[in-house]
## 1
Amino acid sequence: MSLQLEWSNNQTKIDIPESFYGVLEQLLQLAGKAEGLTEGEVALTIVDDEEIHQLNREYRNIDRPTDVLSFAMQEETDEELEIIYEVEDESEQVPFEGMLGDIIISAERAKLQSEEYGHSLERELGFLFVHGFLHLIGYDHQDDASEAVMTEKQEAVLSQLGLTR
């Protein structure tokens, strides 16, 4: 098995060529390789500002749209139940290990930010995707030092595909 990308596009306001999902797949492979991660699945959903605003409010109690949300499946707390695959023969049930999580990106926010920063929409989508992926595997940016680590990792992956500012 290798790193797999499942994607869906729930919005129609911003034109994202279907061929660009191949670039996102390459970014996933490069980011995974950089982190020593060779297996797992990431679900990507492209939404509009209205949908990401609703998700941000519901899951983070922040009442505004954001550019990217990540929902890691591998994080466990004491209150969470272990997720297992359902199979016909109960003796074959195994822990759910393959899904790393979900990344949700607002295409509207990405377009606006690409214009603000003066680079392509593809670069911004790539940045947000790698950013979301790093969150799925445990990175965060709660302080300057951890933000610098994430930024360095993101830029290293994006530069390998020429998605620079």
## 2
Amino acid sequence: MTYENLDAELINELLADGRASLRSVGESLGVSVTTVSNHLQSLEAAGTIKGFVPVVDYDTLGYDVTAILQLKVEGEAIPEITDRLKAVDRMITVYEVTGEFDIIAVGKFEDTDSMDEIIKELLVEPAIKESNTSVVLAAPVECDQFELPVAEE
């Protein structure tokens, strides 16, 4: 097994079960616990693996409104606006993008009233020249991760 394949297989094992013990991962991959630990530490040090977090279903917690905000922003104000969006605890994703809009943000809200309140607070910013908000009706896939390809040996 190559170094790259081991890293990919280790990541795939953790995607399947992020709470798996080093021992069970090692057994599954046919390597020692020390090898798993060393590779995991290397992946974390490189920033490839940035932590282990639970996958939260916000709908079950009452955050069943998802909104996508598209913003046209004066160029020099983009970093300021993205920082402001990052500071809003309901925003789960913020992108600087190419195309018609400059920023796309995704937020989770308890209801349309709370969504409206937070969005209106953001839109008073004079650097935001135009906005478009879409409410998600269904999310067949959301925040999904994919397994890495592993080369055949």
## 3
Amino acid sequence: MAPVSPDWSLYRSFVAVLREGSLSGAARVLGVSQPTLGRHIAALESALGLALFTRSPEGLKPTLEAKALRPQAEALAAAAESLFRAASGPLRENEGPVRISASEVFAVEVLPPLLARLQETHPRIIVELQVSNRVEDLLRRDADLAVRVVRPEQDALLATRVGSVEAGLFAHPSYLARHPAPRTTGELLRHALVGFDVGAPYTRVLQLEGRALTREDFSLRTDSDLAMLAAIRSGCGIGGCLVPLGQRSGLVRVLPRLFSPSAEVWVVMHEDLRATARCRTVFDALSVGLKDLLGGSSRKPR
């Protein structure tokens, strides 16, 4: 007799424990009791013939086998969530949930007015805004749509370029009143700088005259784009932010000729959602709205 595949709910519990690091935390997220969750993990371990977790003072520590299974388990979880969203509303009507992934800055500072307009015209569409600085994998259905500042390369994705956005170095007038604005890279490096702690792919653009800025250059470090922007607005020092946000916040730009990187902005959707009316409606609304905001030339989805 062929082995029976474990029930999906067991994998769902497995993914929750991986993400939360404890049975209690995973139980709260899933809305089940801790003993139930413990039985799920024990049942999955028995079905697979593997030990998935070991206990440690910090909580449940995944074994090497659990780490190896994590990508497939998370893909299964994302696919199940995508299926649930697709089944939650009529495919040919503007009704039901649409999950949008966007970075902190876009989710808080850019998208809300566009989403408010969308909800006025399509009140039966439910927006689920996933705030993340990670580049979500739409192929795994972590989200239905995404706003990205990197060009997607996967053939299975519909992508529209809505423009480009420039970044610059900014400081609050109160900071520059205490510390005269720098005129050279050398002078800038003697200022209080606001920047990243761990770093991410986008931090590679933080270069001045060919010199890459590192965490040791910053007197205030954070990997939250919003915390970084708030620190600059509060006069903590000089830091990088999107030019439109810096101007809107009343900040003063410094050294624009030495630091002016730009990035393309894309709205992306999995091609399988093309026929789902509510997803296409949100895709088009974000594409048009961001094009107006950024002044970019939109291209038809490829």
## 4
Amino acid sequence: MSILDHITVLILTFNEEANIGRTLEAVKWAKRIVIIDSGSTDKTIDIIRKYPQAEIITRTFDGFAQQCNFGLSQVETVWVLSLDADYELDAALVAEMNGLTPSEDISGFSASFVYRIYGRTLRSALYPPRTLLYRRDRAIYRNEGHGHRVVLDGLIGRLNAPVYHDDRKPLARWFASQQRYAELEADYLLSVPRSGLTRIDQIRLMAWPAPVLVFTYTLIVKLCIFDGWAGWFYVLQRTLAETMVALEMVDRRLRCPRKPSKGTYR
């Protein structure tokens, strides 16, 4: 029997009518799809109901990790495939998963991403690999800044085929989301001891260098300069997102000034 028969797809949604149809179309093979919805008011639910194997559970949003951990409690299969509502699985990735015969010491598999802007593929992006496929009983989610990650007990393998990321929600929705994300990122960066931050987050903690570095890195190093308007859209989007985080931290420092400890940037 294929591992696909032992996989439940888990997706969080909130007003994802621009994306969810493409995501679900790529996982029609799944016997069960668990959707944890935070109270969508657009056509998201109507689109999901077109897929008979999709089960919608409405839960008030209280954090990404909390939503995911609740979702895990609703899964009965050995394996979980956790997707964002703007992810698209390539046929090659499905075929690769179908051929998996993981040993007991393997707890999950990560995949890399190909970033798309309204269907236009970028040469590269800042989106890191993510663990998507994992054993349910060995997983727990934790919040980190505005994001979340799954923590697994055991080894993590790597899938060769990529996942496509293509968020087509309106730009106004993106701005509103980024404002909330900037607050959460600032909370994280300013609350964690500097020694506990990654090198990149230590640079972000300084506030002013990060937007400049993101602009240069995405445009030149990631070659988005050669991706036309889609590339510029991505560069400006990522630069603005990092600028909003920097502004949030500077605003807090100006409102509640305190003498920084030696060797820190707070």
